[in-house]
Amino acid sequence: MSVRDQLVRWRYHWHNATRFARDHPHSALVRLSGLGIMVFAAIYFVLPLYWLFSAAFKAPRTIDYPPSLIPEAISFENFVTIATETQFVGQYMINSVLVSTGAVVIVLVLATPAGYAFSRYDIKYKQYLMVAILFVQMIPFLAMIIPLYRIFSVVGLLDTLFVITLLSAANTTPVATWLIKGYFDTVPDGLEEAARVGGASRFQAFRVIVPLAKPALGAVALYAFVGAWNQFIIPLTFISSQSKWVFPVALYEFISLRGVVNWGLLGAASLIAMLPVLVLFVVFQRQFVAGLKGTEFKG
Amino acid sequence: MRDSDRSVRSPVDRRRFITTAGVAGVTLLAGCGGGDSDGGGGQETTEAAADAEPADQTDTEAAGGQTDTASGGTFTLEYVDVDGDRAAEHFQPVIDELNSEYDTQISLNFREIPYDNMKQQLLTRVGAGDEPDVAAIDQIWLGEFYQSGKLMTFNDVQDQVNFDDYFAGFQDAIVQDDDFVAFPITTDVRGMYWHKSAFEDAGLDPDSPPETWSAFYEAAAQLHNPPETYGTGLIVAAGIYSVPLFGAGGQFLSDDGSAPTFQEEPGVQAATVIDDIHNNEEIGPPEPVTGGSGFPQEFLNGQYATTPVYGSWMDFFGRNEGFSNEELLNQFGFGLTPHPEGSEPATMNGGFGWAAFGTTEQPEIVKDFMIRISDKEFNRKIARETGRIPTRQSLLDADEVWENILWEEEIKGMLEYGSTRPVNNWSVVSEELTPALQAVAFDRQEPQEALQQAADAVSSQL
Amino acid sequence: MSDDQSYLSTLDDIAGPEGQPMSRSERLYEAVDSRLPYIMIAPVFLMVIGLILYPAVWAFKLSLYETQIVNLDDQTFVGLQHYVDILTDPFFYKIMKNSAVFVGASVIGQVAIGTALAILLDRSWLGDRIARFFRASYILPWATTAVIVGYSWTFMLNPRVGLVNEFLRFLGWANPPAWINSLEWAMAGVVIMNIWRGTPFSLIFQTSGLQSIQETLYEAANVGGASTLQTVRHVTLPLLRPFILMNLILVTLFTFNVFGMILVMTGGGPLNATNVLALYMYEMAFDLGNFGKASALAVLLFGFNVLTVAFYLKAFGGIKQAV
User: Model ipTM?
Assistant: First the structure.
């Protein structure tokens, strides 16, 4: 689109907006304050990260104090350091992706049927069972860390990516079950009923309906992925070889020299560590928000 | 499961059900097992704590070389250290030496843990019965780990490692109940830093800092120019408090460690310093500093003209902030913390000790490893390559060791006055004392009252 | 068939494949299929039970013993002594008060802001592209790791040079608070950080809730002449109730267990102003090493979680509202 077209568009929008304001002054005020709130919220949510990332693009060791928001000169040296001297773009990323993807698979395989069953069938003590699976979230993880360590030590699974995958999945499965159950509640059962009338078994009916839940599954997948991606204490405790580090553990490298923070390297490494998640946001958002709208089932 | 065919009657689907279940199962395994390529190789669960008294195996005199090890086999020595100081390369040569001595195939698993998580990680592993073989442990945690009964002792090899060569303060820190449980690696001292330019601007001599507290208050008042620069600032916490306490002639605990003594006169005098800075002389920041993480950056950037007590690792922060060594030396002074009139100056030594866990499957090899790394030459190498202060008196004059250490003369002078914290019960003391000192700094309590309360709480837990 | 109460299962018998006798595998399949609901939920329970039952029972048992973390095999039975000690210690009530403020403010903030932003972004009055841009920017904090959050916010909230105070000065507040260095404002600073980090979850949760509201209801409100605010109040919010309830429950459970970010930011200080129950438990276990007492604190923490959930369910009119 050319600049000219753009200008024409903006003028058109401006025209519409002023007319709307003239005709509906009350609504216009509501919308304007809504917009104000949204802009303010955007500053609140983005600024800390913007600051961290802008440090990444400054020349190494020149984090001015107080920090300036706009770097005087863009430098990629921090990224070069990260890429050449650490395994951020390499082993750590592979590990993080493996763990998070594995967690997503486990969560989806476990939570989808469970959420569906909770939504569709009469299960004895359903309400209590639903609340019971939240117990995982209620018990402080730190109280369980030593017994878990003992279990995995006996089973011989310490220092494997499998353990962190499993524990990360266990952390997100309860909420995922709830989310999926909630979504199926909003999907009318007409399709399955038709299938069942046509002679399908319960399992076949489930199979018919699952593809329709893709958007909810997308949201759950994202939730499980991000949950596993950001785990810190679990990998720190259960992994001992550096070749199996994941991002959050590796990020600490730029902080821990007695609390010295190398903001430039930390910013660059954080940005690299966040990139895959950001890509997922962008890729998924359309599907996941439009999908959550679930327009097919409305009306 | 993508097809959305509605003709779900065919019996094929029943088979597909089974298949799907199978596929799901396999996916599950593959998904999670994906990264698990070289399985739990490094982790042997500790055999049994039964053969845990390696201290009694006294055949290590001749560096253990001749004793035939149980079998060929392999042994991975897991070494855990705080990150950022030492690296695997420092230790690999020692492992190579060991390999030529023993039949066993020895390899090193060098692991670094962030300082903030180090104690929790080690405690978790000790609690779960899966200790590493060797660990660098902060001296203030040694007492707790000693209580586990799992630390290897080195009484039998004291002469071999030349125990008496360590600085006096550190000799206390590594002996628990007459058991010699760790080798000091590096040490650090606490002292006063100041901005030379601020001194010049205020008409003070940047090369002769105040030596007594009253002179210090006077200087800080002249330097006080809020809100740009405060005359002084310090982190209000038990560790920092130790220097004024030692300077006033006090100690945290009685000699046998059974009762708190910090509430006595010298302790009150030391807490009064904190009170004075924040509430009486008003030469500090309006809000006392209670969290440590931003403080060094604030100091380096000129927020405080002086800080009377801080660790000798300020230069690490400085280099991280973009200062060169010359700039650091030109812009900052480092020296002894002020002391009360008519008494000796004081400083506090901190640092890590190398300890080994007797639960290792190869106590003999581990002990040999420990003896080798406690060697003076190894100490020389580590100190030189990491820029940390060595712990052996005989290295005081070794110039090459001090090459990377700034304020060399001052630090050497300070080492003479060093004492250490009570390493057996430091957690309890620190946990109670820090809030008490903060109550003083925030003017919620008077020193005497706050310290007495903390002392009562400590007594009930000792 | 064991669960004929399901309206769907009655159809099974008619649908036997063209009246032929069923083979053994088919019978097996039928048997599995009729119990499918339970088979479907079983794995989740296996995972939950497998991973928490033993640890939870273990922690509860230890709470009745005097034991140090360095030597957990050395246990002395003390009964309910730890609980008595904790519940008679005034310090515990200070911690509880902090926890209540931290959890209360964080939960209300996260759910309220998340819901408000979800409603503002809903129903594309802004145009899809702009809505998508805003939504993406609100979700960003979710993609960060807690430790990094702690360090970044320590810097953001620095009294003198932190961006927050720079901004407040820019708005004309000459003497903005010292945040994490101040007795009065430290908790506020920690809450601001926690809301920043936790709101994206609420936003996504409420967005999914909004999708379940049928378009016809909005149309009806519109035809009836309701203003935007009236529609939100009388249509959107009532229909979101179950989602808000669920969101409150989940965020409360998450927040009760937050300690890592606080540890990095303030270490619980100044003067224990930001010391919360989870952090106190961490210190008891991994700093003081008193694992028996720490386990008792964990059990109490679990108890408070259960109580809070029960309270929410009651306030919202029973368990059926959520499930």
Answer: 0.84
